[in-house]
Every structure is written in structure tokens, then in C-alpha cells.
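Let's do one together. I've listed all components of the complex below, 588 residues spread over two lines.
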Amino acid sequence: MSTTPPNIDPRAAALFQTDGRLRRRRIVNRLMEALGTIASLAAVAVLVIVVASVVKNGWGAFSVEFFTTSPSLSGFGTAEGGILSSIVGSILLVVIATIFALPIGVLVAIFVSEVAPRKVADVIRLALDVINGLPTIVTGIFIFSVLVLAQGQSAIAGGLALAIIGLPLIARSAQEVLRLVPTSYREAGLALGAPRWRTILGVILPTSLGGILTGTTLAIARVAGETAPLLFTTSLAVTTSVTWDPTQPVQSMPLTIFQYAEQPDPSFHEQAWATGAVLLAFVLVVSLISKFLLARSRRKLTQ
Amino acid sequence: MTQADTMVNVAPIEIAQRRERPQTPTLRETVFDIRNLSVSYGKTPAIKDVSFEIYRNQVTAIIGPSGCGKSTFIRTLNRMNDLVPSANVEGEVLYHGVDLYGTKVDPVQVRRRIGMVFQKPNPFPKSIYDNVAWGLRVLGMKDKLDDRVKRALEQAALWDDVRHRLKKNALGLSGGQQQRLCIARALAVEPEVLLMDEPASALDPIATARIEDLMHDLKNEYTIVVVTHNMQQAARVADMTAFFGLEVLPDKSRTGILVEYDATQKIFTQPSDKRTEDYVTGRFG
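Okay, and this is what the predicted structure of the assembly comes out as:
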């Protein structure tokens, strides 16, 4: 295959020898590299195609009114107004979910990684994984049966369903971050005669705050797009009023997409696509924020 | 003549000159009375049947080969081994006559009286000021906080280095400065004893020398126990030296034992045990 240069030390000549096995290894190597590259490109392509089609199909619906007004009922079978009530509703739901899931998730993480004996910690970790794998529609039915049947639909009910979905994400990521805090910080705190809870509160939590917020923003991005649990818990029909009242049912972006996509008139479809684009942009921004927070906390820890 | 010998011949004179205590006690006051101390991790023994006394306002060095339980030993003196769930302590560690492992003793209070500096400098990722002030705030010693922080940094010979950047992150300091900051942090809460677990092993020779100078100065006010794998360091700084060795048990497991404990000069010039002599003259370890 390759040619050996003339006048070369026979010991060095071995470097140019090629046998069948070596050739096969090279081919396999090339093949695996190519397959890996293709798979990676395909993954990126999926994202590009999804984003492109969402933006393209929804482009016509974008206007100032789209962001500043709520759906109007005056349109005869066509979409009138914008999605302000959905945007506000989504924000409200996410805020409620975070208020419930963040403190509980962080406390669970602290208990698991700092306090609990290993066996108890393993059980809790398993429980969190199971909750994480719970079909979100089941979470929705659960909240429906315990809250909505008695109290009626509300943003709180929807937010709680989302909190259950976000809790394991926050707890698991917070655990990972807490594990990264060097043991030497714990020892230093304890060696000063500080009780354990003071060490956790004063040293370990501040150190891992950036990482915990990273996990939280990712959880927010995830729950913001959840639709199934909201079907039962917040809205049966399209809610047109803009409300920050958590006891009222609210519209949300995923629900809007779902409901509009089922309408006959194409103007609704366009608005559904546009709403999808807004949701995508939201997830993208939140992911970028979490990246930024992570980089910052890394810098702070290593410097 | 070995290097260790020359070191020892110089060190005691220096120590004598540095000791400027108002009244030199005729009798040594015992701080720790360790009786038949054995520590194991699960079923693995770490140290076995260690007994000796540690005296007030002295530097006591713990030397010995790797794996002989030096760190395990020093960590039992302020109950840091409580953090290791499998650690099991037998025997007594009497601190001014009270067993630190007694049922009613609060380990948090133990560590408050008996501070510790670790092998790797471990300042908190906070400002220099907050590193020192943190322990004070936690322990409620908040009156004259600035003065206390300043005094601790002065004691650790760090004040002049950092006086203009107290609000800067402590992780920006050099390794030696970080270690002195950790010493300042430990001193700020006014412990009686300072335990140092190989405090200079991660530092360059100049930073090491500063830490050693510091030990000389600090023993006027504190009782210091230092683990070191550097024999010259023990010879330079310590009044008393405990040599830990390894004993191979019948079942081939190895455990640390106390071979010899005596005045540093005696350990390095006329050790009474052959194993000590082999170790300090460099024939072993």
C-alpha cells in the first residue's frame, strides 16, 4: 500500500509497513468517524429543521398585537387578537411551579447528599427517578383528582402539576452540584466549631448556588413546554382574559398550540406555529441563561 | 553526621530564645492524655493502642511513614473522624481530664476549642475578610469584628500581604498565603489547641519556612500538634516528637502504632528504639 523510502535503517522501515490487519483497522476507524459525524449532523439538523419550520409557518402571525392582545371572540371562525393571556399564563404557571419545586428540591438534595445515610439516600434517589419517569398526563390526572375536582381549575393546580414534574430535575441536578463542592469546605466549616447546618447554609449552599440555579432554569425550560398536565388543571376552553390571579384558570402557550391546531381555520394554525416559536425562543433564552450561570459558578469555584 | 543531626543542634537554642513567656511553668501541663487509643475504619484497623500525653504551649510533631495513621490520629483529637461513618474509636482521649468521646460531649464544642488546619489550603470561596469573619459570625463573636479579623491575620503573619485587598476573593491568593489565611481563620475563633495536618506539604520551601516560623510564634499562646512527613520540619519546629510506625498483624493487615515519644532532640539524636533510629537516619521510609 505505502512505499518505503529508499536507504532507510531497517529498524525504521517497520514504521512504513502495512499489513492486512492494519488496513482493516484504518477502514473501520474511518467508518466509525464518518458514522459519528453523520449522527451528530443529523441531531443538529433536526433542531434546525424544527426551528425553521416553526418560524416559517408562524411568521405571518407575528405582529405587535400578537404579543400585546389576548384572543378575541369576535372573529368568525378566524383567529383574532394575540396570545398575551397565554404568555402571562405560562409565566404565572412557571413561577408557581418554581416556588414549590425549588425549595423542596434543594432541601431534598441537601438531605440526600449531606445528611441521609447512604441507604436512605439511595431510596430517595430512586423515588426521584421514578417521579421523573412518571408520564406527565398521570401527574395531571393526579392533581385533577385531588385539587381540581374539589377546588376547580386554577393556575395553582396547574403550577403544582408542573412542580411535580420539575422537582426531580431540580433535586437531581442540585445533588450533582452539591457533590462537586469539595469535602475540604465541609471540614473547614466543621473544624471552626460551626454546626453542620451553619456550614451547609453558610458555605456549601452559596458555593453551589450557581449550579443549583442552572438546574432550576433547565427544569423551568422543561416544564414551560409541558401540555398534558395542564389539560386537566388549568383550562378547558380558551381563556381570553389576562390574569395574574393564581386561583383563576389561565391560558398557557402549550395549551394554545394544542387548541389552535385543532381549529379548522388556517389563521389559527399560523398562530399556533407562532406560539410555538415564542415557546422555543423562551426555552432557548432560558438554556443560555443556565449556561451563563454555570460558567459563572465554575469560575467562582476554581478562579 | 546526618542532616537531621545538624538541624537538631540548632533548633533547641532558637526555641529557647523565642520562648518569652512570663512565667515558665516548672511542670508541663497536660492538654491531651491519650490512653489506649485505637481507631479502625470498618474492619480495617488504622491505629492501635496509642498512649501518650501532649503538653500545653508546645509544638508536638507526629512523624512516621505513609499509612501509619498520623492523619487518623490527629483527626481523633478534634473528632473530625466523626465525618467518616465507618470510623470507630476505642480508648480515651482526655482533654484536660475529660474524655472527648464521652457521651455528653458535643463534637461541635470540641472543634470550637480545638481548631484544625488541613494539608491542602481550603479557604472558602469568599473574600479574605469573610473567610476569617465567617467562624466569628457563626460563633456569635461579632463584637469588634474588624479588630478580631485584623488580629487573626496579624497572628498568621498575613495582614501586611492582604490589608489592602480584604474584600478580594481568597482563592486569588498564593498557596502559602491561602494556608496562612486558613491558620488565621482557625485562630480567629480563639481555640486553645491548633491541629495541623501536614500544613506545609503542598507549599514551596519559602512558604513552608514562613509556616514553621509561625508555629514558633504561635506556641506562646496555643498548643500545637502537627503531622508532618518531613523529618527536618519536625526537628525544626517541634518540642516533642511522636514517631508512629507500621505493625504488620498476623493476618497481614497493617496498623499504625506509636513506636516512640520523647523530646524532639532525643528522638533525632539518641532514639531508644531501633525502628525510630532507622527512620530518622533515613534507612527506612
